[in-house]
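JOB MANIFEST
job_type = single_chain_structure
chain_count = 1
residues = 100
[input]
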Amino acid sequence: MIYITMLIFVKEGKEETFLEFESHAIPLMQKYSGQIIYRIRPSRDSFISAEEELPYEIHFISFESDSHLTNFMNDDSRLKFIHLKNESIKSTILIKGEKM
């Protein structure tokens, strides 16, 4: 099992476009043994300190293996909507790890 933490930074005014992409991508994860454990949209008050821009959302995700993640990322039905992701996301920070 692999675990991924994503900090997602959305372009101002593109929140609806991002949510449209997520409405296609999130249900597809199950096909590849993936799941969102937590999907958090923190408020400014949620941060004790921050040196940089605050993320729009934070995702904690799991996949059974790296190959399941790769297959999800390359799925044709996901790639049909990748333009929505590219239009809406300014940047992401992705941290990959294992449960200890």
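[summary]
Helices lie at 15-28, 66-73, 76-79, 82-88.
Strands lie at 2-10, 34-40, 57-63, 89-97.
exit_status = 0
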